[in-house]
Structure formats: C-alpha cells, structure tokens
Amino acid sequence: MKRTFALALITFALSPFASGQELERKTLQNNNATEEVRTIEHEWFEAEMRQDRAALGRLIADDFMGVDAQGNTITKAQMMAGESPSSKQGLSASFDNVVRVYGDMAVAFTNVTMKGRSAGQQYRYLKVYVKRGGRWQIVAQQVTRIAKE
C-alpha cells in the first residue's frame, strides 16, 4: 500500500513537468509553422509580382476558392490564367502580417499597398492555409479594400 501511494505521489508530482514539456514542444512546432506560413506569404507576393505561374501553382491548392475586393469569386484556374486583379498590377506588400496556426491549418492577415493603375490603394488579405502532404498551401483567400480616412 505504501509503495502504491508513493508511486502515485511521485507520478502526481512529476505530471506538471511532463505537461510543461509537451506545451513547450507544441509551442516550438507552432512557432516553426508560423514562420513557414510567413515565408509562403512572401513567396506568394513575389510570385504575383513576377507573374510566376509555376510558383503560384505550388502555393495554391487545387480546391482554392477566393473572393476579390469587388466580391467576385476566384478559382485556382483563374489565378493561374492571370485573371486575378492583383496579377494585372505591380504589388508592393507591407509584411506586418499576423499568422495564427491551428494544427494543420493557419490563417494569415496581410496588408498590401498597390502600385500600377491602383497606386496607393490598400487592401487586407485574409488567407487560409492547410498543411497537406507535409507542405502548406493556400485554400482560401478574402481581399478587402481598406477605405482611405
């Protein structure tokens, strides 16, 4: 009885350390995933600026659905064909983005300032990423124009 009680007491005493290690491991994984998604955000904007369809094809999931600033839906096929409004203009992106990771899903909020025909207009991009087959891909996007004050 004493042995069982002592073993239970030791297990109970050490359990916060084990859960602390698990929390530390999950935090590290989230930090790595956050940086991976931030890197992809940069890659996406650079691919849009260069109109690099091969890079966009890797970053955008086949089942991608987006909504542009005018409320039109956009598919991956339309993005690849250059039918997205942003692909017709140069982009200058401010990367003060915020990324939140939820397991194999992440959400990124990024502010963008347009150049070209729409110079000075600002937009906020909300992108949803899913990690499939070990890599992150964009599955959804919403673009909203930020009104000038």
Largest sheet: 6 strands, mixed
Report the sheet-strand fraction.
Answer: 35-45%
| Share of helix, binned | 40-55%
Count of β-strands: 6
CATH architecture: Roll
CATH topology: the name is: Nuclear Transport Factor 2, Chain: A
- How are the strands of the biggest sheet laid out side by side? 2-1-6-5-4-3
Radius of gyration: 21 Å
| Derived structural class | alpha+beta
The chain-level mean pLDDT equals: 80
Could you tell me how far the N terminus lies from the C terminus, measured between alpha carbons in angstroms? 73 Å
The tally of helices reads 3
> What is the CATH C-level name?
Alpha Beta
Count of the separate structural domains: 1
Q: Judging from the principal axes of the Cα atoms, what is the shape?
A: elongated
Low-confidence stretches: 22-28
- SSE order, as H and E? HHEEHEEEE
Structural summary, described in words:
The protein has helices spanning 2-50, 53-59, 76-80, and strands spanning 60-67, 73-75, 91-102, 105-114, 122-132, 135-146. It is of the alpha+beta class. It has a single domain (2-146), classed as Nuclear Transport Factor 2, Chain: A (Roll), CATH 3.10.450. It has a 6-stranded mixed β-sheet with strand order 2-1-6-5-4-3.
What is the structure about, briefly put?
This protein is of the alpha+beta class.
Main features:
38% strand, 149 residues, elongated, Nuclear Transport Factor 2, Chain: A, alpha+beta, 6-stranded mixed β-sheet
Lay out the secondary structure.
Blueprint: H1 2-50, H2 53-59, E1 60-67, E2 73-75, H3 76-80, E3 91-102, E4 105-114, E5 122-132, E6 135-146
Parallel strand pairs: 1-6
Antiparallel strand pairs: 1-2, 3-4, 4-5, 5-6
Helix pairs in contact: 1-2
